[in-house]
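Exercise: predict the fold of this chain.
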Amino acid sequence: MDNVDISRIKDLREDFDLKQKELADVLGISQRTYSHYENGTRKIPLDILVTLADYYNCSTDYLLSRTRKKDINK
Protein backbone atom coordinates (compact mmCIF):
# COMPACT_ATOMS: atom_id res chain seq x y z
CA MET A 1 0.00 0.00 0.00
CA ASP A 2 1.36 3.39 -0.98
CA ASN A 3 -0.08 5.50 1.84
CA VAL A 4 0.76 3.42 4.89
CA ASP A 5 2.00 5.63 7.71
CA ILE A 6 5.34 3.98 8.41
CA SER A 7 5.75 5.80 11.72
CA ARG A 8 2.46 4.34 12.96
CA ILE A 9 3.54 0.84 11.99
CA LYS A 10 6.78 1.23 13.93
CA ASP A 11 5.16 2.98 16.90
CA LEU A 12 2.57 0.23 17.27
CA ARG A 13 5.25 -2.45 17.18
CA GLU A 14 7.22 -0.62 19.84
CA ASP A 15 4.07 0.00 21.94
CA PHE A 16 3.55 -3.77 21.98
CA ASP A 17 7.23 -4.28 22.95
CA LEU A 18 7.86 -6.42 19.89
CA LYS A 19 11.06 -6.91 17.96
CA GLN A 20 10.82 -6.87 14.17
CA LYS A 21 11.55 -10.61 14.12
CA GLU A 22 8.70 -11.36 16.51
CA LEU A 23 6.19 -9.43 14.41
CA ALA A 24 7.56 -10.91 11.20
CA ASP A 25 6.91 -14.37 12.66
CA VAL A 26 3.31 -13.39 13.43
CA LEU A 27 2.92 -12.19 9.84
CA GLY A 28 4.60 -15.28 8.36
CA ILE A 29 7.35 -13.27 6.68
CA SER A 30 11.07 -12.80 7.21
CA GLN A 31 12.45 -10.11 9.49
CA ARG A 32 14.23 -8.63 6.48
CA THR A 33 10.96 -8.28 4.56
CA TYR A 34 9.28 -6.68 7.56
CA SER A 35 12.22 -4.31 7.95
CA HIS A 36 11.73 -3.18 4.34
CA TYR A 37 8.07 -2.42 5.11
CA GLU A 38 8.90 -0.46 8.23
CA ASN A 39 11.65 1.51 6.47
CA GLY A 40 9.43 2.30 3.51
CA THR A 41 11.67 0.59 0.96
CA ARG A 42 8.98 -1.93 0.05
CA LYS A 43 5.22 -1.50 -0.16
CA ILE A 44 3.10 -3.36 2.36
CA PRO A 45 0.73 -5.79 0.62
CA LEU A 46 -2.96 -5.46 1.46
CA ASP A 47 -3.12 -8.84 3.20
CA ILE A 48 -0.26 -7.86 5.52
CA LEU A 49 -1.88 -4.49 6.22
CA VAL A 50 -5.14 -6.20 7.20
CA THR A 51 -3.28 -8.68 9.39
CA LEU A 52 -1.47 -5.80 11.13
CA ALA A 53 -4.76 -4.01 11.75
CA ASP A 54 -6.29 -7.19 13.18
CA TYR A 55 -3.26 -7.87 15.35
CA TYR A 56 -3.17 -4.36 16.77
CA ASN A 57 -6.98 -4.12 16.95
CA CYS A 58 -6.99 -0.93 14.93
CA SER A 59 -8.47 0.03 11.60
CA THR A 60 -6.67 -0.01 8.30
CA ASP A 61 -7.71 3.64 8.06
CA TYR A 62 -5.55 4.35 11.11
CA LEU A 63 -2.58 2.61 9.48
CA LEU A 64 -3.21 4.61 6.32
CA SER A 65 -3.46 7.91 8.27
CA ARG A 66 -7.05 8.42 7.19
CA THR A 67 -8.04 8.83 10.83
CA ARG A 68 -6.36 9.62 14.13
CA LYS A 69 -8.69 7.23 15.96
CA LYS A 70 -6.61 4.17 16.81
CA ASP A 71 -9.14 2.03 18.65
CA ILE A 72 -11.84 0.65 16.41
CA ASN A 73 -14.21 -0.12 19.30
CA LYS A 74 -14.32 3.38 20.77
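Check your answer against the key: The chain has five helices and no strands.
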